[in-house]
Design goal:
Beta-Lactamase; alpha+beta; 5-stranded antiparallel β-sheet
């Protein structure tokens, strides 16, 4: 196991490069999938499974946006950010990502549900047995939630995760 300071340096490097990488994706409809994939990789937060959902009370919609599952992870020949079309094709056929993207329910925030209640209500449906989560306010009164499970207990115990997730607020949702 690597020392915590080295892990934090790797995470900070990943996060500091991510905005520049996101700019390469202008016009793509799956930017959130790229971001979740980058945040979930071993060099960053090392997720086993992650589901990014947005609750929009104005439209009465809780919608899955992107999913990541290690068993279906994209294995690039070169670099994910070079093989953007190949990654997009992979994510269109990745069963877990499609399960998350097809997730659609009435808004829970509109009904006054807490983040804990939302996670408890839908974690099993999204394939989680022991989920951790972060929730954060987004533009246009949307509410972002990331459910995730760690590969090991030290995988993503880091306060930087919310900084990475905030970048998702700049990604369009389709």
């Amino acid at each position: 196991m690597e020392p915590l300071e080295l892990k934090k340096q790797k995470i900070m490097h990943c996060l500091s490069c991510l905005p520049r990488k996101i700019l390469k994706l202008h016009g793509r409809h799956n930017i959130s999938e790229f971001v979740i994939h980058e945040l979930g990789k071993k060099e960053c937060f090392d997720f086993d499974r992650a589901a990014y959902i947005i609750d929009n009370p104005d439209f009465d919609l809780l919608k899955g946006v992107a999913g990541l599952y290690q068993e279906e992870i994209y294995q690039p020949q070169k670099d994910l950010w070079v093989e953007m079309d190949e990654f997009t094709t992979h994510m269109e056929t990745a069963p877990y990502n499609q399960q998350v993207r097809s997730f659609s329910k009435p808004s829970c925030v509109r009904n006054g549900d807490s983040d804990d209640q939302i996670v408890k209500k839908f974690a099993g449906e999204l394939g989680f047995t022991n989920p951790s989560f972060y929730a954060w306010p987004m533009k246009h009164d949307n509410h972002g939630i990331l459910l995730y499970e760690k590969i090991n207990e030290e995988s993503c115990d880091c306060s930087y995760l919310l900084e990475g997730l905030s970048l998702l607020g700049f990604c369009p949702v389709y």
